Amino acid sequence: MDEELRQTIDGIGPRLRALRRNRALTLEALAATTGISVSTLSRLESGKRRPTLDLLIPLARAHRVPLDSLVAAPVTGDPRVHLKPLAKGPGSVLVPLTQYPGRVQVFKQVLAPREPKLVTHHGYEWLYVLAGDLRLILGEQECVLRPGEAAEFDTRQPHWFGPAGPSAVEILHLFGPHGDHAVVRTPPSGPGAAD
Question: 177 with 101: CB under 8 angstroms?
């Protein structure tokens, strides 16, 4: 085995452990989700078991990451954008989808349960729920958004959002730092609409 391949394989276990810990998952919880035994998961993370596709694919699905992010394969001229998840506290992950300073920023987020703490700042936000239930507090109002539902608000209003229950929630999060508002363009509908 050449040195580059050995380093790639040796890096998988620590990467799996860090990903699991960043999501605040126990080995038991991950075993229940993937069907892989706790002992096998522990040996994978410690480097005592060689990773195989039949083990890595369920782990990539459980963590909702592409397989190549588990392996950290060398760059091969692939034109796709390789997103870099950022840990934002135990169980919370932020994935920047855009890199435009000063313009609307787009993120995919997995938010772990935490205590509400209202904040205010300049800007405008849109939230779209992908999986789980999102609790949104805006000043004195509170609501729960389900998958497929969205909300938008001025961030100068005291606000907080996070999981509505004990499980994480996954969202698309758009933030306009200068108070940018969405422009919705749809054709008229209903009686009398133009054909």
Answer: no
Give the pLDDT score at 85. Answer: 76
Return d(Cα 113, Cα 130) in angstroms, integer. 16
Region 112-126: mean pLDDT is 91
Q: How far apart are CA 181 and CA 91, in angstroms?
A: 30
Q: Which two tokens stand for residue 154?
A: 């001025």
Q: Tokens 């933030």 correspond to what residue?
A: 175
**169-176/134-138 β-pairing:** unpaired
134: β partners: 145, 163
Residue 26: alpha-carbon gap to chain centroid:
18
Instruction: Decide if pLDDT at 50 tops 80.
Output: yes
Could you give the CA distance from residue 66 to residue 106 in angstroms, rounded to a whole number? 19
How distant, in Å, are the alpha carbons of 60, 71, 75 from that of 53?
A: 10, 10, 19
Own/partner contacts of 60-65, CB < 8 Å, gap of 24 or more, are 61/34, 62/30, 62/33, 62/34, 63/19, 63/20, 63/23, 64/110, 64/170, 65/19
Cβ(43)–Cβ(30) below 8 Å: no
Contact 63, 19 (CB under 8 A): yes
- What are residue 176's DSSP bridge partners? 124
For residue 153, what pLDDT is reported? 92
CB 108 within 8 A of CB 170: yes
Instruction: Please give the torsion angle defined by the CA atoms of residues 147, 143, 169 and 92, in that order, rounded to the nearest 10 degrees.
Output: 150
